[in-house]
Amino acid sequence: MADHVDLPDADGALAPTRRMVRREWRMALELASTAVRTRDLQRWPQGDGHPVIVLPGFLAGPESTVFLRSHLRRLGYRAHDWRQGRNLGVRPGLTDTLEEVLLEIHDRYGRTVSLVGWSAGGIYAREMARALPEYTRSVITLGSPFRGNPSASRAWRMYTLMNRGDHHQALFTEEARMTRASPLAVPTTCIYSRADGIVAWECCTSVPAPHTENIEVRATHLGYGHEYETLRIIADRLAQPEGAWEPYAGPAAAPPDDAAAPVDPVAPVPPVASSDLGTGVDPDEPHEHGRRARGKAG
User: Smallest Cα–Cα separation from 127: which of 101, 164, 162?
Assistant: First the structure.
């Protein structure tokens, strides 16, 4: 549901308890529950074909977002992986590389791009949109700790072991933290869960701003990308007409039984037709003719 309560204290947030970490096993149930309900997608808001980049969380790779990307394609979007393999943290040059990916995909379709980032991937998505707002349609973060205490995460120790040096230190100055927490100029949806067993949910919420919203779900951290309620919210947010953003109003009522074909809850959903699907073209492979030098956009 949309969250209208007072802003939680992200600076004083603590990492989830061990008990909450142990409950992350429920992600398997979340996946199974959603997998047998995929035909429900035909009743969800359909996409308008605009491109979407999906960014994985820390230590995760393209395989972790396959389920999410396949569902987005079935809804009618051109869903792309972030093309950087496994997410091992911020490396020198990663920021420029991700901005190039955004520009290339924008050029390929001639349309602004939505960004969906899971955990740390959402932090990257926000900074891509901050740098290139004119090329970004919207941002959706899934349990992304972009505000408050950076150590309020069960992944913090591993992250600091794998990411050291001056470049890493610069990311966590007070100025850098304040910049990351500041709202974006594009429509932004921050999805969080109090059941998150990896990062403190408080750190995944934004300060109030126009075209920015916090929405609470009941997903585990490892289940955001395939938990049913979360997927339905993502579908709703992506389907908004460009330039006509409205806060999330909750799930729309399903159409009457006589308005839809009979639904088999376990039958597979055929992918929608598109110029990049069913033709042997991998939409995550860059098209050379779409590439251009930074600074020449416009």
Answer: 101
* Distance separating alpha carbons of residues 169 and 156, to the nearest angstrom: 14
Radius of gyration of the chain (CA): 19
DSSP 87: -
Count CB-CB contacts under 10 A for residue 258. 5
Distance, in Å, from the CA atom of 27 to the CA atom of 17, rounded to the nearest integer, reads 17
- Which parts of 16-137 fold into alpha helices (H)? 18-22, 27-35, 66-75, 94-109, 120-131
Residue-by-residue pLDDT tens, the chain, 298 positions: 454 457 899 999 999 999 999 999 999 999 999 999 988 878 899 999 999 999 999 999 999 999 999 999 999 999 999 999 999 988 888 999 999 999 999 999 999 999 999 999 999 999 999 999 999 999 999 999 999 999 999 998 888 888 777 776 777 788 989 999 999 999 999 999 999 999 999 999 999 999 999 999 999 999 999 999 999 999 999 999 999 999 999 876 444 433 433 333 333 333 333 334 433 344 665 444 344 545 433 3
Take residue 249 and report the two structure tokens written for it. 């109003």
Q: Hey, what domains does the chain have and what are their CATH numbers?
A: 18-248 (3.40.50.1820)
Distance CA 59, CA 255 (A): 40
Cβ atoms within 10 Å of 208's Cβ, excluding its own: 12
Look up tokens 């190039």; give the residue: 100
CB count within 10 Å of CB 113 equals 25
Separation CA 214–CA 5 (nearest Å): 10
Are the beta carbons of 183 and 209 closer than 8 angstroms? yes
